[in-house]
Amino acid sequence: MKKYILSSILLAVIIFLQACGAATADDKSLAAKQKELDKKIAQRDKLEQEIETLEKEIAKLDTTTKNELEKIVGVTPVTPQAFSSQVEVMGKIDVDANANLSATQGGTVTKIYVREGSYVKAGQTLAQLDNDVMSKNIVQARQAVAFTTDLYNKQKALWDQKIGSEVQYLNAKNNKENAEAQLNVLLRQNDMFRIKAIYPGVVDEVSIKLGQLVSPGMPAFRVVGTKGLKLNAEVPESYIAKVKQGNSVQIYLPDLKKEVTGKVNYLSRVVDPLNRTFTAEILLPDNNTDIKTNMVGILRIRDYNKAKAIVIPVKTLLKNSEGYYVFVAAGEGGKLKAEQRKVTTGAINGDKIEIVSGLNEGDQLVTTGFQSINHGDNLVISK
Fold it and tell me: How many other C-beta atoms are found inside a 10 Å radius of the C-beta of residue 163?
């Protein structure tokens, strides 16, 4: 029994000692691994610092990489300026003096003094009709005037000397006046054998030929005046308060690519119930020979005006899912980067648009090259 007890105690002691020895070995292994890990971490941190230092040094020395990252752009300083917007209404050019001229007396055309494109004055003779008979009658009338005038002068000289009767004097005077009146009638009738311009202008068409028999009312010449040019436009009812009689307005002629200043001459008193427009007649400057009748003109009506506004070219305005934006060149120390600015737009006029918010005076707006840059890109300003 005692031997059995001693054997059991001895076995327990042996097991305990083995367990303690195993635990001590495990503790030594864990500490060693932890020490090794700390060493590797320190080596990693040092290596990362060395890598970062080398990358910075390479970036400074590698000019090829630097040039590839820079974008060349053009910029324009943002400066407040006067800005106005306008609406455009299409109209048609007309002229008061635009008519076919004809003869007032029938006859055969013997002379034509002008051709298409000739400039004529008011009263200028354009063509002559056969007036041979009338010319002979005028010769006789002139002789009659000369004869009766001579008799009158003699009779008057006698009457001044109290010689002869008053009836003889009055009869001589009456004959003279009748002869003069008859001559004047013939001269006026002879003038009807001429086709004349009744206003200054340009001969646009010659419809008769030499030897042709013409009659009153038959078109002979079309003369378009150089004065009385006007634009007739149908203006929307909503702009009735912005167009006043006597106001100066701008007329753009797209065919001639030029703009002229006109004056509102007349506004119709009735609004068309179908299209809700009213007629405006705009007088244009005279002697614009390049402006043709029936040419298209655009009436520009100013509907917005601001003394100081931030205005940019429409082409520089970009849009994404969040709205409109532009690029500005921002930075210090000579280093510029592309900065994307969200903007709020206002009125527009042609190729210019007002920016209500998002840009400030002095900002460097990117105006060329903005299509190929992104936010944060390095920029170089072209010279």
Answer: 11
pTM above 0.90, yes or no: no
The secondary structure element, H or E, covering residue 38 is helix 2-61
Q: State the burial class of residue 51 (Cβ atoms within 10 Å of its Cβ: 0-12, 13-18, 19+).
A: exposed
Asked whether residue 183 falls in the same domain as residue 264, the answer is: no
CA distances from 177 to 34, 140, 147, 174 (A): 146, 15, 12, 5
List pLDDT tens digits, range 333-346.
668 889 999 999 98
**Whose CA is closest to 349, among 77, 89, 80, 87?**
87
Number of neighbouring beta carbons within 10 Å of residue 357: 12
Specify whether 139 is located in the same domain as 247.
Answer: no
CATH number, domain with residue 261: 2.40.30.170
Distance CA 194, CA 102 (A): 10
* Confidence class for position 5, pLDDT limits 50, 70, 90: very low
